[in-house]
Amino acid sequence: MELLTSLRKNTLGISIFAIVTAGLIAITQVSTKDQILENERAQQAKALYEIISRDSIDNDLLEDVIHIEVPELGYPLAKIYQAKRGNKVKAVIIPVISPDGYSGDITLIVGINADNSVAGVRVLSHKETPGLGDKIDLRKSDWILSFDDKSMTSSNDSSWAVKKDGGQFDQFTGATITPRAIVNAVSQALRFFKLNRDLLLSPKPVKEAS
Questions:
Q1: Does a structural domain hold residue 209?
Q2: Would you place residue 1 in the very low, low, confident or very high pLDDT band (cuts 50, 70, 90)?
Q3: Is 70 exceeded by the pLDDT of residue 117?
Q4: In terms of domains, do 15 and 93 share one?
Q5: Residue 41 confidence (pLDDT)
Q6: Are 184 and 158 in contact (CB under 8 A)?
Q7: Dmax (CA) of the chain
Q8: What angle do CA 156, 149, 53 make, to 5 degrees?
Q9: Three-state SS at 110
Q10: What is the pLDDT of residues 17-76, one digit of tens each?
Q11: Which of 91, 97, 115, 185 might form a disulfide with 83, Cβ 3.0–4.6 angstroms?
């Protein structure tokens, strides 16, 4: 009987502990949800405004978005940001997923000006080799800035390749796959922009999928 009573007490204690713990976790999640969303928004804004400076536009990049199906860029439905001044779209920022990284997918954003030139490129996430492929990260190298102001003369512009492949962009010593993946991803974004230029530069909101 004493053993049974002890087991019941222990079971009750464990149950109460589990309930209290679950309640505390739920309260913590609710109380920190807004802060997490705010932090994510701040990080997103930082990357966008590194490409398009705040003082060059008069709209909120995070709010002025259109949604377009772009499976060729890795997104079934992509959120594309419009940079406006005087209700005229001067540039767009397009998200791209490159599946060709050495260690997996590389996610990036590509800013493209209305004149078809590159406003800027930033890598958001990757798993490339430290000391080699991670030079695509602006914190490691300024290589990513080599795309600034570049444009594509045609959809099959051979200069849009790393130098090892006869193009204009440097590869990394001991690592060609990673820069090649980025060059290909940016060129894909430029082709997409040219094909959809009128839609992307329209200041009128595009009806989003329900």
A1: no
A2: low
A3: yes
A4: no
A5: 62
A6: no
A7: 88
A8: 135
A9: strand
A10: 667 676 666 565 555 655 665 665 677 788 899 999 999 999 999 889 999 888 989 888
A11: 91
The residue written with tokens 């397009």 in the block is 94
**CB-CB contact of 124 with 108 (8 Å):** yes
Tell me if 191 sits within 8 A of 153, measured CB to CB: no
List, in order, residues 6 or more apart from 55 with CB less than 8 Å away.
none
Q: What is the pLDDT of residues 194-206, one digit of tens each?
A: 999 999 999 865 4
DSSP state of 138: T
**Based on the domain organization, do 81 and 23 belong to the same domain?**
no
Both 9 and 71 in one domain: the answer is: no
Q: Which of 101, 98, 82 is nearest to 90 (CA)?
A: 82
The reported pTM is 0.78
Q: Are residues 186 and 107 in the same domain?
A: yes
Average pLDDT, the chain: 85
Contacts of 78 (CB under 8 A, 6+ apart): 67, 68, 69, 70, 94, 95
C-alpha closest to that of 191 among 82, 66, 52, 96: 96
Can you give the residue range of the structural domain that contains 75? 58-200
Rounded to whole angstroms, what are the CA distances from 54 to 37, 58, 84, 90, 108?
21, 8, 10, 13, 20
How remote is the C-alpha of 104 from its chain's centroid? 15
